[in-house]
Design goal:
Layout: H1 2-22, H2 27-43, H3 45-64, H4 68-76, H5 80-85, H6 94-148, H7 155-177, H8 186-203
Helix pairs in contact: 1-7, 2-3, 2-6, 3-6, 4-6, 6-8, 7-8
Length: 209
Amino acid sequence: MKQPLWLVLWVIALEAIIVLVLIPGDWTARVIEEESQLLEIRLGQEEHRWVHDRARLWFNTTLIETGYYNAARNHLIPTEEQRDNSTGMENMGGGWFKWAESRLQAVANAYYHILARFALLLTWFPYFLILLVPAVFDGITTWRIKRTNFAYSSPLLHQYSTQGIGYIIVFLVALFLAPIVLDPVIIPAAIMVACVMAGLMIGNFQKRM
């Protein structure tokens, strides 16, 4: 599982660089709007409203009301009063300030986007449990049965299932952070596959364990 962990770190670093440096300031806002429309089409208006209400609550509570956003903005971008008081240097760094404000807005939009996807994930959580609990129970039962007879516990199937879960985690992290329009059913589908793999992994533990 070391390789997926390193992949997760590389994915986070790469996508952070993309958001901070490359994508336009309003790109993520457009992606959020398009994904929001797709969410309403796939899951309905009530689910759409709950997801974005929850995301806005978290966004305001953690970023706006705490003063972090304003502090970062004031640190990077001078106010009009500060510019007026800088005699002879009012227009200095105008291009930098516009770029910094664009990057700050892009980061804030990306943060909201991640919160909205996490809220969507919470709506699917009961369904994950419905699939995960039987998969784990079946895996444990299968493993116990194999300990009492000559049934074969496949080390390859155990290894591939374990690696598959790791790569699905990498895949989900990449999707959560990616500033692209994402179909709302992709993340739940990936987690459901991981639940099935968890059952296979447990069912194929070596008998000596």
